[in-house]
Amino acid sequence: MMDKWLRNPNVVKVIALLLGILLWAVVHLDDKGTTGSGFSTNQEKTIYNVKVTPIYDEGKFHIASMDPTEVMIRLEGKESALKKLSTTDKYQIVLDLLGAKVGENTLSLVAKDFPSGVKVSIFPPYAKVLLEEKQTKEVPVQVNVIGNPANGFKAGQGVAKPNRALLTVPSGLMDEAITVKADVNIENAQSAVTKQVKLVALDKNGKELAVSINPTVVDVEVPITQPFKKMPLQLKVVGEPAAGYGISLFQPTVDQITVYGPQELLNTLDFYEGPQVDVSGLKADQIYTLDIPLKPRITVVDPPKVEVKVQVVASDKRTFEQVPVTIIGQNTNFDTRIKSPQNGALNVTLEGAPATLQKLKAQDVQVIVDVSNLPPGEHTVNMNVNLPQFVKKIDTETKAIVEITAKSQDVATAGSQSAVQTPAKQQP
Fold first, then answer.
1. What's the superkingdom here (predicted)?
2. Which of 119, 135, 182, 299 could cross-link with 197 by S-S, CB 3.0 to 4.6 Å?
């Protein structure tokens, strides 16, 4: 019976038609579904916390605020299309601000770079944005020194080149106090630290600002030195000009120098002993260029050299009459008397440059006798004549005769009683 049906041409045609219809329905089922049946192959997917990407001219504008910054999206499409989302992150939710105005804007969000065949719904569908215009502001660069130099060294003031930076900031920050800082580490440094440093902009609370800085990097130098002290330079003159000449001018180019070394050594120095200036046999003007020597533990002297200008002229003579001899080192229990020179005074003849001699006064010339530790009796002692620099004595006695005697008992006793009673009278 079945064979008879199959051999019937009309039956075969009907069966072929039915099979064709079924195949067509299967092929088109994914695209259109079955009309009226409510069945569909489309699927839905929800993604939370998708970042909103604003598009704007970052060189001219600044986003002061944006709400929301993240959204939820609902996707609808074929399973094959939705699966493509899991293999790529290229899609974006975009906020186009290229045509926005400065101030507050409410603009629609746009889905971008999603696979074809996927319907995207955005919640919420728009965002509010406060747009500010950027302006330029010049700010000084502050060098911030981090760490400490090696023991015994000091850090000087750091210098940045260039020392000012140009900031591009939102208009709302133009009146704010902004600091541009360059951090440089000098830990254990023993010499100047020179580095290229990236600049950072900070607000008044010390929080870093995301603003454009030009230049972004500067050259910074921090001098590192040992402790130093400025003090007088002492030059020692040795020798004498040729006979018949005197020094009329002795002029060093510097009278003070800066001395570098350990602080405990600098604290003990009130002056710095420089080089000797030898004027032996000098008959004409001379300029000396001398190195300033380094004492033990002194590392640097500034300047390292000194120039001394010396002028000589034909010398002259001047006599100071009856210059009193001063006794030093007397014992209070003895009387000391000068027997020679007579009257305890001495005529002193001096030689030097005429202008120098004319400026001298009697009190500028001192004749001193030291009787320290001498017992009673008569003694011959040296007389020392103290004179201003570049003046010498001639034809002058060099010895004095002094007589030391014990004081009378009454005088000694009175002096002793006075010494004892005086503190008692001062007590309340």
1. Bacteria
2. 182
Q: In this structure, what CATH number is given to the domain that contains residue 109? A: 2.170.120.30
Residues 383, 368: contact at Cβ < 8 Å? Answer: yes
Name which residue leads in pLDDT, 172 or 326.
326
Q: Kind of pairing, strands 110-112 and 126-146?
A: unpaired
What are phi and psi for residue 147, nearest 5 degrees? 90, 180
Tokens 């995207």 correspond to what residue? 120
Q: Would 293 be classed as within a structural domain?
A: yes
Beta bridge partners of 167: 137, 213
Q: What is the pLDDT of residue 11?
A: 57
- Whose tokens are 């955005």? That residue is 122
Joined tokens for residue 333: 């229990």
User: Residue 64: what pLDDT?
Assistant: 81
| Contact by Cβ (8 Å): 28, 97 | no
Residue type (1 letter), 349? T
Sequence letter at residue 249: L
Structural domain includes residue 191:
yes
> From CA 3, how far away is CA 366, in angstroms rounded?
162
| CB contact burial 201-211 (16+ within 10 A = b; e otherwise) | beeeeeeebeb
Q: Is 27 within a domain?
A: no
**Token output for 369:** 């006798």
| Counts of helices then strands in the chain (DSSP H, E) | 7, 31
pTM: 0.49
pLDDT tens across 29-87, in order? 544 443 444 445 788 888 899 999 999 888 788 888 899 999 999 999 888 888 877 65
Dist. CA 58–CA 103, nearest whole Å: 15
In a domain, 357, yes or no: yes
